[in-house]
Amino acid sequence: MARVEPVPGEPAAVADCGGEQALVVADYHAGIETGLRYERGVELRSNAEARRQRLCALCDRTDPDRVVVLGDLIHRIGDPERGEDDEIEALLDALDARSTPLTLVPGNHDGGVADAYGDRLDVTDPGGVRLGDVGFVHGHTWPDRSVLGAATVCMGHEHPQVRLEDEVGGGRAEKAWLRGRLRIDPFADHFGVATESLAWGDPELVVFPAFNDRSGGTWVNVEGQSFLSPFLPDALADDAEAYLLDGTRLGAYRRV
User: Which domains does the chain have, with CATH numbers?
Assistant: First the structure.
């Protein structure tokens, strides 16, 4: 099995971390409906139960040793609100019932998570963590140098999507994976060191689609769209490819 193998049809993957296997998802955004109500005045019925059932079904399907969330476990920035808190408590209860620990690589929305739930989940450094030969980051900040020594780096934050058009001009957005080699030069420049001083694993970057269906995303193949991460797209090889959730290989993402 590849170090990071997407689960067919799902915005999730199984990562081989050496001594254990992890089910990995990104951008869960618990309580997003509460956030949208406050931020935009949009009233939506909560999908909290459906999100939890999807994740639990993936645990049943893949039997992981742990679940890793690549940031933005909650939606509203700051301390968890009531809608988020209820959803997270129910999710942690469900994972506890399966004896499946949860590791959170904190994202830009997760400021209050460690204080609120630190006794129930593992929260890593914001610069990410390396488990075996796989590194995990959210992507809103530059990765810790130790993460760059991994063979594969997984990140979220971007919520990548591709815009697909048919022969009559109709279009739709589809969630997508991005996979490609990282370039060393932007990281050496950021850390102010020579390239040879980095413990560089020549990693493949895997950018995860958002787990949450209501969180929008970056159309990576639309001209004028900007990436959110400070190291993308400069640090991503030009031949990085996009894939649909069903495994369809679209080719180089810039030419989709």
Answer: 4-255 (3.60.21)
